Amino acid sequence: MSRKDPSGGLLISPIRNGTVIDHITAGEALNVLRILGITGSTRECLSIATNVESKRLGRKDIVKIENRELRTEEVDRIALIAPHAKINIIRDLQVVEKKGVEIPRVLRGVVRCPNPGCITNTNEPVESTFEVLDKGLHCLYCDWLIKNDIANHII
Q1: 106-153 under CATH 3.90.25, yes or no
Q2: In this predicted structure, which of 43-47, 95-99, 113-117 has the lowest mean pLDDT?
Q3: Which of 22, 43, 52, 123 is 20 to 30 Å from 59 at the Cα level?
Protein backbone atom coordinates (compact mmCIF):
# COMPACT_ATOMS: atom_id res chain seq x y z
CA MET A 1 0.00 0.00 0.00
CA SER A 2 2.88 2.36 -0.69
CA ARG A 3 2.32 5.59 -2.53
CA LYS A 4 4.97 6.70 -5.03
CA ASP A 5 5.92 10.19 -6.00
CA PRO A 6 6.67 11.01 -9.67
CA SER A 7 10.42 10.49 -9.15
CA GLY A 8 9.80 6.88 -8.11
CA GLY A 9 10.42 7.27 -4.35
CA LEU A 10 8.02 6.14 -1.69
CA LEU A 11 5.95 8.78 0.06
CA ILE A 12 4.81 6.34 2.75
CA SER A 13 6.78 3.22 3.52
CA PRO A 14 5.07 -0.10 4.27
CA ILE A 15 4.84 -1.43 7.83
CA ARG A 16 5.48 -5.02 8.89
CA ASN A 17 2.77 -5.21 11.58
CA GLY A 18 0.18 -2.74 12.76
CA THR A 19 -2.72 -0.68 11.50
CA VAL A 20 -3.20 1.58 8.51
CA ILE A 21 -6.08 4.04 8.72
CA ASP A 22 -6.82 5.16 5.17
CA HIS A 23 -9.44 7.52 3.72
CA ILE A 24 -9.40 9.78 6.78
CA THR A 25 -11.22 13.04 6.09
CA ALA A 26 -8.57 15.53 4.94
CA GLY A 27 -7.20 17.54 7.84
CA GLU A 28 -8.30 15.07 10.55
CA ALA A 29 -5.12 12.95 10.91
CA LEU A 30 -3.92 14.86 13.98
CA ASN A 31 -7.36 14.46 15.59
CA VAL A 32 -7.14 10.71 14.91
CA LEU A 33 -3.79 10.63 16.74
CA ARG A 34 -5.31 12.57 19.65
CA ILE A 35 -8.24 10.11 19.82
CA LEU A 36 -5.75 7.23 19.96
CA GLY A 37 -3.75 8.93 22.72
CA ILE A 38 -0.67 9.22 20.55
CA THR A 39 1.48 12.20 21.47
CA GLY A 40 5.05 13.21 20.88
CA SER A 41 6.01 11.40 24.10
CA THR A 42 4.50 8.02 23.21
CA ARG A 43 6.61 5.29 21.64
CA GLU A 44 4.65 4.36 18.50
CA CYS A 45 6.38 4.51 15.15
CA LEU A 46 4.07 6.47 12.85
CA SER A 47 3.71 7.51 9.25
CA ILE A 48 1.29 10.35 8.58
CA ALA A 49 0.26 11.78 5.24
CA THR A 50 -2.10 14.72 4.99
CA ASN A 51 -4.02 16.08 2.04
CA VAL A 52 -3.07 13.18 -0.21
CA GLU A 53 -4.90 13.08 -3.54
CA SER A 54 -7.85 10.68 -3.54
CA LYS A 55 -10.14 9.77 -6.43
CA ARG A 56 -12.98 9.01 -4.03
CA LEU A 57 -12.64 11.88 -1.55
CA GLY A 58 -10.67 14.49 -3.48
CA ARG A 59 -8.19 14.77 -0.58
CA LYS A 60 -7.56 12.44 2.35
CA ASP A 61 -5.21 11.74 5.23
CA ILE A 62 -3.50 8.43 6.03
CA VAL A 63 -2.07 7.21 9.36
CA LYS A 64 0.11 4.12 9.78
CA ILE A 65 0.83 2.84 13.28
CA GLU A 66 3.38 0.10 13.73
CA ASN A 67 2.79 -2.75 16.17
CA ARG A 68 -0.69 -1.67 17.23
CA GLU A 69 -4.16 -2.91 16.32
CA LEU A 70 -7.11 -0.69 17.20
CA ARG A 71 -9.82 -1.55 19.70
CA THR A 72 -13.51 -1.27 18.72
CA GLU A 73 -13.96 1.81 20.92
CA GLU A 74 -11.10 3.57 19.14
CA VAL A 75 -12.59 2.76 15.73
CA ASP A 76 -15.98 4.13 16.89
CA ARG A 77 -14.33 7.41 17.89
CA ILE A 78 -12.50 7.67 14.56
CA ALA A 79 -15.78 7.08 12.69
CA LEU A 80 -17.17 10.32 14.15
CA ILE A 81 -14.59 12.47 12.39
CA ALA A 82 -13.72 10.20 9.47
CA PRO A 83 -16.89 8.35 8.39
CA HIS A 84 -15.24 7.04 5.18
CA ALA A 85 -12.12 5.68 6.88
CA LYS A 86 -10.84 2.19 6.14
CA ILE A 87 -8.99 0.21 8.78
CA ASN A 88 -6.34 -2.18 7.46
CA ILE A 89 -4.68 -4.68 9.81
CA ILE A 90 -1.17 -5.57 8.66
CA ARG A 91 0.70 -8.71 9.72
CA ASP A 92 4.01 -9.75 8.16
CA LEU A 93 3.67 -7.00 5.51
CA GLN A 94 0.28 -8.37 4.36
CA VAL A 95 -3.20 -6.89 4.76
CA VAL A 96 -5.02 -9.58 6.76
CA GLU A 97 -8.17 -7.60 7.51
CA LYS A 98 -9.77 -4.60 5.85
CA LYS A 99 -12.91 -2.97 7.15
CA GLY A 100 -14.78 0.28 6.99
CA VAL A 101 -15.88 2.22 10.02
CA GLU A 102 -19.46 2.54 11.17
CA ILE A 103 -20.88 5.20 13.41
CA PRO A 104 -22.91 3.45 16.10
CA ARG A 105 -26.49 4.67 16.66
CA VAL A 106 -25.71 5.26 20.35
CA LEU A 107 -22.37 6.38 21.79
CA ARG A 108 -21.61 5.57 25.43
CA GLY A 109 -18.59 7.12 27.10
CA VAL A 110 -17.21 8.37 23.78
CA VAL A 111 -18.23 12.04 23.77
CA ARG A 112 -18.20 14.58 26.60
CA CYS A 113 -21.37 16.67 26.85
CA PRO A 114 -20.59 20.38 26.46
CA ASN A 115 -23.44 21.30 28.83
CA PRO A 116 -21.78 22.01 32.20
CA GLY A 117 -25.12 21.28 33.91
CA CYS A 118 -25.43 17.79 32.42
CA ILE A 119 -25.39 15.01 35.02
CA THR A 120 -22.52 13.37 33.10
CA ASN A 121 -20.32 16.36 34.02
CA THR A 122 -20.85 16.00 37.77
CA ASN A 123 -19.28 13.61 40.24
CA GLU A 124 -22.09 11.14 39.65
CA PRO A 125 -21.03 7.77 38.18
CA VAL A 126 -22.99 8.36 34.96
CA GLU A 127 -21.49 7.63 31.55
CA SER A 128 -22.28 10.08 28.75
CA THR A 129 -24.77 8.68 26.24
CA PHE A 130 -25.45 10.27 22.87
CA GLU A 131 -27.83 9.31 20.09
CA VAL A 132 -26.37 9.84 16.62
CA LEU A 133 -28.73 11.87 14.44
CA ASP A 134 -28.36 13.34 10.95
CA LYS A 135 -28.23 16.82 12.49
CA GLY A 136 -25.65 15.96 15.17
CA LEU A 137 -25.15 14.16 18.47
CA HIS A 138 -28.04 14.31 20.95
CA CYS A 139 -27.28 13.91 24.69
CA LEU A 140 -29.86 11.51 26.14
CA TYR A 141 -29.55 13.08 29.60
CA CYS A 142 -29.89 16.82 29.00
CA ASP A 143 -31.05 17.03 25.33
CA TRP A 144 -27.98 19.07 24.30
CA LEU A 145 -27.25 18.79 20.57
CA ILE A 146 -23.66 18.88 19.32
CA LYS A 147 -23.75 20.05 15.70
CA ASN A 148 -20.19 21.24 15.06
CA ASP A 149 -16.64 20.55 16.11
CA ILE A 150 -17.35 17.01 17.27
CA ALA A 151 -13.63 16.18 17.43
CA ASN A 152 -13.18 18.55 20.39
CA HIS A 153 -15.82 16.70 22.41
CA ILE A 154 -14.46 13.18 21.91
CA ILE A 155 -13.16 11.69 25.15
Answers
A1: no
A2: 43-47
A3: 43
* Residue pLDDT, tens place only, 33-78: 999 988 877 787 899 999 999 888 899 999 999 999 999 889 989 9
Q: Which of 31, 77, 130 is nearest to 87 (CA)?
A: 77
State whether CATH 3.30.70.140 applies to domain 2-100.
Answer: yes
Q: What is the DSSP letter of 72?
A: H
Query: Residue ranges per domain, the chain?
Result: 2-100, 106-153
pTM: 0.81
